[in-house]
Design a protein that fits this description.
CATH topology of chain A: Tetracycline Repressor, domain 2
Radius of gyration of chain A: 17 Å
Strand content of chain A: under 5%
Oligomer: homodimer
Largest interface: A-B, 46 and 47 residues
Structural class of chain A: mainly alpha
CATH class of chain A: Mainly Alpha
Number of domains of chain A: 1
Helix content of chain A: over 70%
Number of strands of chain A: 0
Shape of chain A: globular
Order of helices and strands of chain A: HHHHHHHHH
CATH architecture of chain A: Orthogonal Bundle
DNA sequence: TGCTACCTATCGAACGTTAGGTAGTTGCAC
DNA sequence: GTGCAACTACCTAACGTTCGATAGGTAGCA
């Protein structure tokens, strides 16, 4: 089916992009992961830029719903904040993969404009959720938590990047623990 | 001269790698930046892996001496810590470039082993300096500051990455300020 | 003579992309 | 309910470009 193939391409492309970036996302490897030929991808996406934008869009949409699920699952904002870093930990668990948005932020200069837009949307989704949840946890206004939200997002992304460069997930855990003890993120 | 050409290649390659990564560091563009032809690079470096390793090695060596200079220049450890993030800010000032080590950490999976080693050395140089300087600032043992040193390094790298994705250096400044107010880095 | 520091020309592989073809299904006129 | 046109989802084959890398040559200097 058309819809399933499109989704299979997006899922495989996401996996590749989290390990090798937008530049490392090549059609022959991607097609073989899906079980089709490279030319067939053009039946679903008109160009690599369109595919990249679709991948990044799907990525932030998934993250947005994961974050909402986290709020419901934990039951309260403080517990949700404590669990936030687990979303980034999960990437490392899957063969030391990086957040798609972090990788593409590094590749920023070489990204098509449509992809840049979706990468920025991922940051916005995270920062907005963090600001909202921080506000709910301490009873303050959302806008008053924007700076802190950005700081948490950047710090967790940095921790993931460092852990990846050591191929050691315990480095990530130790960094999150340091952030906690210094008061950057919720204890 | 041989020595000057080698240095010119390394300097130009560093600039390219900070903007486009190891994968985006191509011989034709690099050669034209130096003012020679692509094939001539092989007179100085036997392969791209060797060049990449030399670039990363020179990068951490430069950073190591910059950090020692910072200690001498500021006169005391606390002031040196306050100024630490300026080293990362300087990359962003130069056409929104990223720390070479951050970019290569993202590209980790596709890096030749010799390059991986030098990338990790960069982290070690930073973390060692931070741990040493934190210890000097608060009169504690170096080993007791290792975790905090890593946390500062990761957080500053994350701030640089986020600022790059917005092509906005004020995002970096705001993040460093947030880190200060939350107590992660020295006020 | 031999070394250094480059050059031109080219290699094979990989890249995104396109042209054009082929099964299988669907929809509709008769 | 049969025939056929149109469409979907793929295919093979190849395009032009770019990549890192190599072979072999040359000018200048010791």
């Amino acid at each position: 089916m058309s819809t399933n193939s499109r989704e299979a391409i997006l899922a495989a492309a996401t996996d590749i992009a989290q390990a090798h970036g937008y530049g490392g996302m090549n059609y022959r490897e991607l097609a073989s992961a899906v079980g089709i030929k490279a030319a067939s991808i053009y039946h679903h996406f008109p160009s690599k830029a369109d595919l990249g934008a679709a991948v990044a869009k799907r990525y932030w949409e998934t993250t947005a719903s994961d974050l909402e699920a986290l709020l419901i699952e934990t039951g309260d904002p403080t517990r949700a904040l404590q669990a936030y870093s687990r979303i980034f930990r999960r990437s490392l668990e899957r063969e030391n993969r990086l957040c798609l948005c972090s990788f593409m932020s590094a590749e920023y200069d070489d990204l098509p404009d449509a992809v840049k837009t979706e990468v920025q949307a991922f940051t916005d989704v995270n920062v907005d959720w963090l600001a909202r949840t921080l506000a709910a946890a301490n009873g303050s206004r959302v806008e008053a938590n924007a700076a802190k939200a950005r700081a948490i997002f950047a710090a967790v992304a940095g921790a993931q990047l460092l852990a990846r460069s050591r191929a050691d997930i315990s480095v990530f855990d130790a960094l999150i623990e340091s952030y906690r003890s210094s008061g950057l993120i919720a204890a």
